[in-house]
Write a structure and sequence with these properties.
Oligomer: heterodimer
CATH class of chain B: Alpha Beta
CATH topology of chain B: Ubiquitin-like (UB roll)
Structural class of chain B: alpha+beta
Shape of chain A: globular
Structural class of chain A: mainly beta
Largest sheet of chain B: 5 strands, mixed
Distance between the termini of chain A: 5 Å
Strand content of chain A: 35-45%
Shape of chain B: globular
Largest sheet of chain A: 4 strands, antiparallel
Order of helices and strands of chain A: EEEEEEEEEEEEEEEEEEEEEEEEEEEEE
Helix content of chain B: 10-25%
Number of strands of chain B: 5
Number of helices of chain B: 3
Number of domains of chain B: 1
Number of strands of chain A: 29
Order of helices and strands of chain B: EHEHEEHE
Distance between the termini of chain B: 36 Å
CATH superfamily of chain B: Beta-grasp domain
Number of helices of chain A: 0
Largest interface: A-B, 25 and 25 residues
Radius of gyration of chain B: 12 Å
Chain lengths: 392, 98
């Protein structure tokens, strides 16, 4: 491996951080799309220079950007300036329209609102982009209000996989504090028909037929903030992670509780163990050790900052239950930032790198599996997402 | 020649400097101006008005000749000064901090 590229989405633009394999000196490029919210950027596993970005604005809506040169230049697919006389529009890369076809869309009319009443589905933004493991032109998009879309033409057009929203539990889904977002998309590397997704606050779902049909996989989750704590749906899942070598084993950071499944989500059990708080947002798995996992404990759902003002990543080398604080290089006093659900990632170098960004604008990196940390940058806008590419 | 002034974020998105100038065939209305704008700059589709309903996005307003035209019917004629190119049609993003 010759290099690392860290893709950072923030409240005010995107940044691309690059380094060689030593991961000591970094170049910072950006802001790209300055002033816009960049919820997520991610590269194609089969073409590392093909990147996708979700650019959003409360004023001007959703834009999808694509780069074919590793983030140096970007285009909104299908949005290229038209010569005169006008050519037909080439594509509509930011058009995310829910399926309302009589065959599949008709029943998909409302979901549960904060006050328990039914509310129409309203597209707001793309939270997460998950490029295909095999095709650089195929990407899945998790959106708010929760739905899953897919492009097979490099982002020029998007179609909803409406079997998910059409699940009979759809009218019971409700927004979390951040909105009703589909934020996690895990593609099973051993089975191209299997996809896991997670929604706040509906829970986790799985398809085994490439997105045609879905079912909830929330057995074992327990949430005191819903009328039936053990309900089939309604759980505020914050993030799910898997190791490529063991896709039936899933790790989950829930609103409260860190959970594990050893049967592809059929059942879950708690592995919070000795964490100082089991509330948090991100969770990730070491690139080479499938039982080494990382979380960032946050004090509570009403106080979104680290306990005791100490920014600590917790690592378990035993697949949960037993956790150790990683603190070297991280602020251990007066630190009141948050780490959001998509803001942690790992690289695949021999000595696994771990990265996370904060709402205070810092991006921290560890080149030794979390033993020691150093900031790559300290003063970006609030970080929404972090992804890492290990470059050949 | 119709003159259109876009907010900064949309100028950046469309990669234009200053005013956009467009020729409109037929009546000059909000709809015909926006149709022509989006045909010339497809990246703006969905950013000013909804893809499906074509309703103005809530935080976007239309001003011209010192009037707020945001709530005028989309097919109502725009002021003669706009149609003649003497005054620009302003697409404005609501002012907010952050």
């Amino acid at each position: 491996m010759s290099g690392i590229r860290v893709l950072v989405g923030t409240r005010k633009g995107a940044f691309v951080l690059t380094s060689d394999g030593k991961r000591q000196k970094w170049d910072v490029s950006g802001p790209h799309f300055a002033g816009w919210e960049i919820y997520h950027l991610k590269g194609s596993p089969v073409d590392p220079n093909r990147l996708y970005a979700s650019q959003t604005s409360g004023w001007f809506g959703q834009i999808i950007q694509r780069s074919d040169d590793g983030g140096k230049t970007w285009e909104a697919p299908g949005g290229e300036k038209m010569p005169e006389p006008y050519d037909p529009p080439a594509g509509v890369s930011n058009k995310f329209v829910y399926d309302t076809s009589p065959q599949t869309g008709k029943p998909l009319t409302t979901h549960q609102w904060y006050d328990g009443t039914q509310h129409p589905w309203e597209f707001k933004r793309v939270w997460h982009l998950e490029p295909s493991l095999t095709d650089p032109d195929t990407v899945y998009a998790g959106v708010e209000d929760a739905a899953l879309f897919r492009t097979v033409d490099g982002g020029r057009t998007w179609q909803e996989l409406s079997g998910l929203r059409g699940h009979s539990s759809g009218p019971k889904w409700q927004p979390g504090a951040g909105g009703m977002c589909l934020h996690t998309i895990l593609l099973d590397p051993s089975d191209p028909e299997r996809i896991f997704i997670a929604i706040s606050a509906a829970g986790a779902f799985r398809t085994d037929d490439a997105g045609k049909t879905w079912r909830p996989i929330n057995r074992g989750l327990h949430s005191e903030y819903i009328p039936d704590p053990d309900a089939e749906v309604g759980h505020c899942v914050h993030r799910i992670a898997m190791h490529r070598s063991r896709p039936r084993v899933l790790f989950m950071q829930k609103h409260w509780d860190v959970m594990r499944s050893d049967d592809a989500g059929e059942s879950w059990h708690e592995i919070s163990g000795n964490l100082p708080s089991d509330f948090g947002f991100p969770i990730d798995v070491h690139a080479h050790e499938p039982d080494t996992i990382y979380v960032v404990p946050i004090k509570s759902d009403s106080e979104h900052f680290p306990p005791d003002g100490k920014l600590r990543v917790y690592r378990s080398r035993t697949g949960g239950h037993e956790w150790a604080a990683l603190t070297k290089g991280l602020p251990q006093s007066d630190c009141y930032v948050n780490v959001l659900r998509d803001a942690m990632a790992v690289d695949s170098l021999d000595s696994c790198g771990v990265y996370f960004g904060t709402t205070g604008g810092q991006v921290y990196a560890s080149a030794d599996s979390g033993d020691t940390w150093a900031p790559i940058v300290r003063d970006l806008p609030a970080v929404l997402s972090v992804e890492v590419q290990s470059l050949p | 020649m119709i003159r259109i002034v876009l907010p900064q974020h949309l100028r950046t998105l469309a990669r234009v400097d200053g005013e956009v100038q467009l020729e409109i065939d037929g009546p000059v209305t909000q709809r015909s101006v926006l149709d022509a704008l989006e045909a010339r700059y497809p990246v703006l589709r969905g950013t000013i008005r909804d893809h499906v309903t074509e309703k103005r996005r809530p935080f976007v307003r239309f001003f011209a000749c010192e009037q707020d035209l945001s709530h005028e019917p989309p097919d109502a004629p725009l002021p003669d000064a706009v149609a003649m190119g003497a005054e620009p049609f302003l697409v404005v993003g609501a002012i907010a901090g952050g």
